[in-house]
Write a structure and sequence with these properties.
Strand order of the largest sheet: 2-1-3-4
Structural class: alpha/beta
Distance between the termini: 56 Å
Largest sheet: 4 strands, parallel
Strand content: 5-15%
Order of helices and strands: EHEHHEHEHHHHEHHEHHHHEHEH
Helix content: 55-70%
């Protein structure tokens, strides 16, 4: 199969997983204005922003020769669970006929998850398939560890662009040399050394400003649609941590809840005082993460939500209470194809000024 997939955060995990099962990975281009225009043109007007971006991404992947789309689903009132049905009908009307393989939360329908995995696995033995899954999961963790470290240190870089250049080189190293778990770990070690050797001007620990980013998974992870929010905050002197990276999504979607920390159950427990039911998406995890960031000593939170996203609209209505109860500033930003980058840039700068003032700078 020639498989394409959403462009969501670091692409190396998806590429390596597809290739390890003997398929050709048709890497989706980084979303551009053309991607957005295609998605808007062929999507319902009030569909949420991720739906439109995915629509455009799938069209570009099929234009590049893909015959299969592998994607994730959703649950509850969140419309992500219905995306693939409407995407498929739209693509068929445009003259494409891809197979769409959807991976929902394992706990929602284990048999469906297994049946879909069999399609990807093909003739690969179950033993080898589990080794591939484990290895690519380790790859995702290692790549995320590099990104997490970069999004702290980049706030203090002396030569602008040094960390972005190093990050790209590290990902190339993973792609070329990450052929086994031991080699993946070697790549991660080399990558950390490369990051740690970049010259930075690190302030005293008490003077560092730490910002957590929460929100809908796609706009949190995909820089091309969130205005490169992590880098923008880094350039303003803030350390950044995202609530979701690809390895976190795997943990929360696959790991049994008996492993509380790994599965994210502790975040859901944090949220229960504000919302004791899950309504789809990551709204409960996000509220739990806000509380967790406060407990870790973070100075502020940026909440990213796609326009017309039901779960994040619920989160937004509860944010003032959480902010007041836990005494932590929270900035909510709505994102869609009409987003004014300059306007949001001004809001982000004002927010960081507030955090600096609270810090006593």
């Amino acid at each position: 199969m020639k498989i394409t997939y959403p462009h969501m955060g670091n692409q190396i995990f998806y590429k390596k997983l597809v290739e390890a099962f003997g398929h050709e990975a048709i890497e989706p281009p980084t979303p551009t204005q053309r991607t957005i225009d295609l998605g808007v043109k062929y999507s319902p007007e009030f569909a949420c922003f991720p739906y439109k971006i995915l629509m455009g991404t799938y069209i570009e992947g099929l234009e590049n020769g893909a015959d299969t789309i592998v994607t994730s689903g959703g649950s509850g009132p969140c419309r992500a669970g219905l995306y693939y049905e409407i995407h498929k009908k739209t693509l068929e009307n445009l003259g494409y006929n891809p197979e769409i393989i959807v991976f929902d939360d394992f706990g929602r329908s284990p048999q469906t998850f297994i049946d879909n995995f069999k399609k990807i696995k093909g003739k690969t033995s179950w033993c080898k398939a589990f080794r591939i899954i484990h290895q690519t999961y380790i790859l995702a963790q290692s790549a995320d560890n590099i990104q997490k470290r970069m999004e702290i240190l980049r706030a203090y870089e002396v030569e602008k662009g040094s960390f972005n250049k190093a990050f790209n080189e590290i990902m190339e190293d993973f792609d070329k040399n990450g052929t086994s778990i031991s080699r993946i770990k070697e790549c991660e070690k080399r990558g950390m050394e490369k990051l740690n050797n970049i010259k930075v001007e690190m302030p005293a620990k008490k003077d560092r400003i730490k910002v957590g980013i929460v929100g809908e998974i796609y706009v949190v992870m995909e820089n091309s649609v969130n205005m490169n929010i992590a880098e923008v905050l880094n350039l303003l002197g803030c350390e950044v941590s995202r609530s979701l990276y690809i390895s976190d999504w795997i943990d929360h979607s696959v790991t049994p809840k008996i492993f509380k920390k790994k599965s994210g159950q502790y975040l859901l427990d944090n949220c229960k005082q504000y919302l004791d039911i899950q309504i789809g998406g990551h709204e409960c995890h996000n509220m739990g993460n806000i509380i967790d960031y406060k407990q870790q000593g973070y100075d502020g939170i940026v909440h990213l939500m796609p326009f017309a996203c039901l779960p994040e609209l619920v989160t937004q209505t509860l944010i003032p209470r959480i902010s007041a109860d836990y005494d932590i500033p929270i900035l909510s930003l709505s994102l869609d194809e009409q987003t004014g980058i300059a306007n949001n840039q001004t809001r982000i700068e004002a927010f960081v000024d507030l955090l600096k003032k609270n810090k006593g700078e």
